[in-house]
Description:
- Pfam families: Citrate_synt.
- By secondary structure, the protein is mainly alpha-helical.
- The chain has one domain: Citrate Synthase, domain 1 (Orthogonal Bundle), CATH 1.10.580.
- The chain has 15 helices and three strands.
- Bound molecules: acetyl coenzyme *A (ACO).
- Acetyl coenzyme *A binds next to helix 14.
- Residues 204-205, 208, 238-245, 293, 296, 298, 301-303 line the site of acetyl coenzyme *A.
Amino acid sequence: MSDGLEDVVAANTVLSEVDGQRGVLIIRGHSLDELAGRTRFEEVARLLFDGFFDDLPADLAPGLAAARREVFAEVSALDTGLLDRNPVEGMRALTARLADGDDLATALRLLAAPAVFTAAVVRAQAGQAPVAPDISLGHAADILRMLSGKAPSAQEAAALDTYLVTVSDHGLNASTFAARVIASTRAGLTSAVLGGISALKGPLHGGAPGPVIEMLDEIGTPGQARAWIEAALARGDRLMGFGHRVYRVRDPRADALKAAVRRLDDGAGARPGRIAFAEAVEAAALAILKEHKPNRPLDTNVEFYTALLLEALDFPPSAFTCVFAMGRVAGWIAHAREQVAAGRLIRPQSVYIGPAPLAA
Ligand code: ACO
């Protein structure tokens, strides 16, 4: 028995491989280094979907753009009672309005949903009207436009594309496993994606980048980093943006996003000096974690540079998990289809440790 299932192999997959010892992520035969910064989200989604849908077009972009427009109709149903809550809850509620199904049209609507609904929820929370999709734009550029109301620079769209590609799939992480469990019951893609969103919401999975910003803001200046981090660890807190269940060396996604954020730092978005400050905090954290846990390799994870990248693109920290879902939804859909093709209901065993019934 293993509480966190770390040693349990629960699926064969052609989708991605996380090599935690070497710090390598492979997505359908390509290393993340090959894809990040060079491929658009639509292309990686197609790569992931390949073989799982009969009628897959050579280019997913037009179908995805049309799906953005289609799901936008649901935005009018946004319940204002949801606006005081975590944006994931609003985005999830609108996604739940989509019909379940297993075909490509359902998959494209689900691929579009977190993007369109998050932009609408964030704007509604700021008292702004939603911005309808522009189907002439690529997915990443349109997300930024639906969020801010103005066309992004090519550099900003490329940074978001890098992010979406980087988080598109990652082995049998908690949200992907949740999606596969649901898909194995034949509930349909919408149900599987809703399960993925719900698992991603937790702070130990997709909910960490918001707290990374809080940490940086509380630290304030590089000189305060050591004292702040030591006090946090002394309280028994975990440093957000560090550590990973599988990676025992550096998370390769952190490097891909660091490169993207540095490219942005030269241009629009980033606050002056923000990246240099974050790098100083990162260096202090790594040195202190090494002293704190000498036998446990703890390195920077994807969430640390996610926080900086999404902050530079003007996403509010409360919506960072939603942006993660915009990318990971491609993986959830492909895994759900792969699980259905595998044909087996996921149904593990438990060991009963409660009291025995009283003798009659
Ligand atoms: N800061 C301080 N100590 C840590 C950290 C951290 N970020 N991460 C692990 N540790 C410590 C634990 O306290 C534990 O110490 P103990 O043995 O004395 O109890 C030891 O290292 C091992 O930790 P585990 O909980 O066994 O490691 P696990 O593999 O379960 O944790 C996790 C992985 C949950 C990501 C953890 O590193 C963490 O909480 N990190 C901070 C949150 C975070 O950044 N989450 C995003 C992860 S990336 C993603 O989901 C996309």
